[in-house]
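Posting this for the archive.
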Amino acid sequence: MPSVRNLFGYSRPGPGRCAAAPVLPMSHAEMAALGWDACDVLLVTGDAYVDHPSFGMALIGRLLEAQGLRVAILSQPDWHSADAFRALGRPTLFVGITAGNMDSMVNRYTADGRLRSDDAYTPGGAGGRRPDRAVIVYAQRAREALGGVPIVIGGIEASLRRAAHYDYWSDKVRRSILLDSKADLLVHGNAERQIVEIAHRLAAGEPIRSITDVRGTALAGVAAPEGWTEIDASRLDRPGSLGPGASAGDRTVIRLPSFEEVAADPVLYAHASRLLHRETNPGNARALVQRHGARDLWLHPPPFPLSTAELDRVYELPYSRRPHPAYGDARIPAYEMIRFSITIQRGCFGGCSFCSITEHEGRIVQSRSAESVVREIERVRETVPGFTGVISDLGGPTANLYRLRCRSAAIEAVCRRPSCVYPGICKQLETDHAPLIALYRRARAVPGVSQVLIGSGVRYDLAVRSPDYVAELAAHHVGGYLKIAPEHVCEGPLRKMGKPGIATYDRFKELFDRGSRAAGKTQYLVPYFIAAHPGTTDEDMLELALWLKRNGFKADQVQTFLPAPMASATAMYHTGKNPLAPVSRTSEDVVVPKGLRARRLHKAFLRYHDPANWPRLRAALRRMGRADLIGSGAHQLVPALESPARPGRPGRDRKEKRGGLAGPPAGRPPAGSRRLEPRGSDRPHRNINPGSPTGPGKRRRR
C-alpha cells in the first residue's frame, strides 16, 4: 500500500490549545473552566459520554484534542426541539454526529420487533434516551439550531447505511443516510484518518463543499473528476468475474444500480450488495457511485489501516477511563462490561455473512504492540476505581486475530476474497499464535494483576492450528466458561453464514477439554447458535435441536437472526439470492425463514426443553413427518403429554396446531441444566461494532 500521512503528523491549527482536559466538556461552565470561548468541534452522540477508548465518541474526541482542537461533547440530547443543540454554542469547524456505539434501531428493537426496555449505553440502563434513526434526527436538529455549520455523520449507523440499504424495521430499501440526514459528509469505517484530515482542512479555511477527495467518505451531488473512468457494475460480475484488479489510486469508479433500481428489483439489490462487499480492500477498492433521484452518491474507497505505532498512540491518549462526572453514581451497563478490558486489535478477515465488522472496521487486522498493551494494563491498575487485579478481556472483534494477516503485502493488496478463512483457511494467511501467547504471558506478569480473562469470542478454526494457544487459554484465561460460536451444525446454513463445519468445533472442544484437564480445571464451552438465518430450513433447526439434546445443552436465551444494514446475509434475507456468488435471474435461490411464525418456530427448536415451546414443536414435528420424535425416549425431542394449561391460557396446544402466534413467555431452564447463553436475548452486539462518530469501538462477541 502507498505511504499515507501519519495520523499525528499534522501541524496544530492554533496556539494555546494543546493541554488535555481531564474530561471533554459537556457544559458551558466546563468550557469556561478550560478558558474556552467556543469549541472547535461539537460531537453529538446517542450514548452516555464515557471517556474510554471502547466508546467511539471518546476516542474521536481525544484524537481531535491531540490535534490541538477544542472538542465538546453533546451526549444524548433531547431531540424534541433544537434547543439542546444550541446549549454549547456554535463550533468553529464542524458538528460530528453518531447514533452511538450501536445502530439506534438494533439498540431499541429485538429481532422480533419488540421494544427493548433498557439501553446499556445510558445511565441507569434506561431505555428511550435516543430517537429511532438517531443520525437523521440529530443532523436535522443540528442544522436547525446551528445554521451553516458543516455537519459530518459517522459511526456504525451511518457507516452501514452509506449506500441504498434494506431496512428490516420498515421492510423496505431506504436511501443513503447521507441524503436523508442532509449532512455535508459521511465518514465510513474506522475514521481516524478521515476525521483528522477533514478537521485540519476546515481549520485551514477550506470550505466543506470542496473536500471531495478523502478516502473513507461519502458525499452527494459530485460529478466524476476529470480523468476518471466510469465502469458499469454489470460489466464486472458477468458471468462471474470481478474484473481486473485495481491498485490504490486507480482512477476508476464503478456505477452501481441506482437507488430506484435496487428498491424495485431484488436481483439488482443482491448484485449491488455483492459488488459493494468486493470493493472493501483498501489496497484495490475502487470508488462507487449510485444514483439517487437526480443526484449521484459518491462512495470513496475505505481508509488505509493504521500502523501499529499510530494505533498504540490512539489507545494511549489521556482517557480518564470512566464516565463523565456529570452522571454521578449512575451505573452505565456497557461501561461496567468493558471497564477492565483492553483492546489489542481491530478488524476482521472472517467474512461471516451476518456480521458487519469488515464493512466497518475493515478486513485487515491492525494490532497494537505488546509494550502499549502492558502500559494500558498498568494504567488500569493505577487509575480505574474498583480494580481488583482482574483484567476482564484482552481482545477485540475476536480474541485470537492478534498479529494475524496475509504473509504477502503484495497479495493482500490485490485480494478480493471476502474471507481469509472460508471455505478454507487461505495458505497465505499467517496463523501463528505465538505472539498472542507471549502477550498473554506478559500481561499476567504485570505486578498487581492476578488474572487475565478472555471475554472476546475465539475464532476456533484458527485456534485449532495452534494447540499451544488452546492449552494456554484453557490453563490461564478462562473463568469456567468460554464463549464459542459454531452458529449451526448443518452445511446448508453454515455455507450461507461462511462458517466452518461442526467437525472443527469438535476438534477445538477436544483441545480445550484436554487443556482444562491438564490444568486441573473443570471448564465448559458456551456455544452460540443462530435461529432463522437465511439458508436454514425447519429440518436444519430440528437437526440442531437434536444435536443440542445429545450434547446436554439447554439454552436460556437465544439469538434470532437480525438483518442488520449492509450485511451479506441481510441481502439474502431481503432478496432470496446469494450475493456470496455471482447473482443473476437464474442464480441460486436462498430459503429464507420470514414472518413471526417461521422465526418463532426456529427459535423454539433452540429452546426445545422449554414446556412453553412444546405445543409449537409437536405441531411442527407432525407436519414434518417426524412424530417419532415426540415422546419421552432419550432420542426424542419433546414429551408426548400435553403441557399443563396455564391460568388464562386454555387450549394452548389447539391454538398452536392452528398456527397461533402467541409467543413463549420468558423462562429459565430446568434446575441443573447447562446454560448456553449467559446474557442478553438476541445479542444485538453480534452484528454491530461499537463504533464512532466516526471511529472504532470494542466488539464483545464473535
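Residues 239-245, 645-702 have pLDDT under 50 and may be disordered. The chain has 24 helices and 23 strands.
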